[in-house]
Amino acid sequence: MSRSRPHSRLTTHRGAYVGPQPIPRDLTWRSIAILGALPVTALAVALYPLAAAFVLATFSGAVAGAALQRRRPEVLARMVPDREPPADRERSGTAPR
After folding, report:
1. CA–CA gap between residue 16 and residue 78 (Å, rounded)
2. pLDDT tens-digit profile of 37-75?
3. In the chain, which ranges are continuous DSSP H helix?
4. Residue 94: partners with Cβ closer than 8 Å, 6 or more residues away
5. Cβ atoms 89, 95 nearer than 8 A
6. What is the percent of the chain where pLDDT is above 90?
7. What is the pTM of this model?
8. Measured in whole angstroms, how far is the alpha carbon of residue 33 from the centre of its chain?
């Protein structure tokens, strides 16, 4: 007796790329550095809360300023009126010597 349809190779022999991929067990140098910095950061925040708040505020302000400068560059030109492109400074004679 013969089968009415051919035998499927996928059901008997699973492919190498079928199913979940194995999780890599080795850590990269970046993950080791981050995991090593976590207790140091926690200790620094616990010992120096004012300095930690200052660092967090400085970092947040830098990120917000960079985002604002990227989205609306004309805002900085209004806030700092002396800001001219270097080519305009050379023509107007106000370039530093």
Report:
1. 61
2. 999 999 999 999 999 999 999 999 999 999 988 998 888
3. 9-12, 29-47, 49-71, 73-79, 86-92
4. 84
5. yes
6. 38
7. 0.45
8. 16
